[in-house]
Design brief:
Elements (H helix, E strand, L loop, with lengths): L2 H8 L3 E11 L9 E7 L22 E3 H9 L4 E5 L9 H9 L3 E6 L11 E4 L9 H6 L2 E6 L3 H10 L7 E6 L4 H14 L3 E3 L3 H4 L4
Parallel strand pairs: 2-4, 4-5, 5-6, 6-7, 7-8, 8-9
Antiparallel strand pairs: 1-2, 1-3
Helix pairs in contact: 2-3
Length: 209
């Protein structure tokens, strides 16, 4: 990364863009709805089951002007989902200001591991054990999505649910590679604890990006 690009990235005027695409939201509260996804590179949370490990190294993804990202996004949709990687690694202020100025709804999918920046209509918090969320992200989250890989994850999910607001919608989602094993456990748990809902990666079942 060139020095001038590094300065602009640190200011949030450029971002390491991994990919951007128009598709159907597959998970959580907005599943089944059309949205434009902006995947930002860079993440040091390091979940072993991450299905986009190629996003971790920000150096692999070209710094792209936020103005260009905004221009591309609003051509397709008025709902823009910013994901990663971990998007809050970077300052999201300029990107979201640009999107909001064009009338877009701004959604983010985040582990919450870094301070909350940007203007968000919807915050999906998916906390990870190795790097817990910042307090402000807990307070602002609209939905909590806890990934279930094994039985111990239910206890972690309850710990996280205790941190979010009463209005936050609670989801348990099977980790894809062990879904056949954990889906019955999740179904049983939700039936016993109906404050939770089941989230599935429906885009994978539909075979879409």
């Amino acid at each position: 990364m060139k020095k001038n690009e590094e300065i602009l990235v640190n200011e949030g005027k450029m971002l390491p863009l991994m990919e951007e695409f128009y598709t159907i939201q597959g998970e959580g509260f907005h599943k089944g709805t059309a949205a434009y996804f902006v995947r930002i590179g860079g993440c040091d949370v390091g979940c072993h089951w991450c299905d986009v490990k190629e996003s971790w190294n920000a150096e692999l993804h070209p710094p792209t002007s936020t103005d260009i990202i905004v221009k591309n996004a609003v051509q397709y949709s008025d709902v823009v989902v910013v994901t990663g990687g971990e998007p809050l690694t970077w300052d999201m202020t300029e990107l979201t200001k640009g999107l909001k100025s064009k009338g877009a709804q701004t959604h983010i999918e985040t582990s919450g591991a870094y301070p909350l920046t940007g203007i968000w209509d919807w915050i999906c918090l998916s906390p990870k054990k190795v790097k817990l969320p910042q307090q402000m992200v807990y307070e602002k989250a609209h939905e909590l999505k806890c990934i279930i890989y094994n039985k111990s994850d239910f206890g972690f999910a309850e710990e996280q649910a205790a941190q979010v607001s009463e209005d936050c919608i609670l989801y348990l989602q099977p980790e894809w590679s062990v879904r056949d094993k954990v889906v019955p456990l999740i179904v049983d748990y939700v039936m016993k604890n109906p404050k939770w809902k089941v989230s599935l990666q429906t885009h994978k079942y539909l075979n879409i990006p």
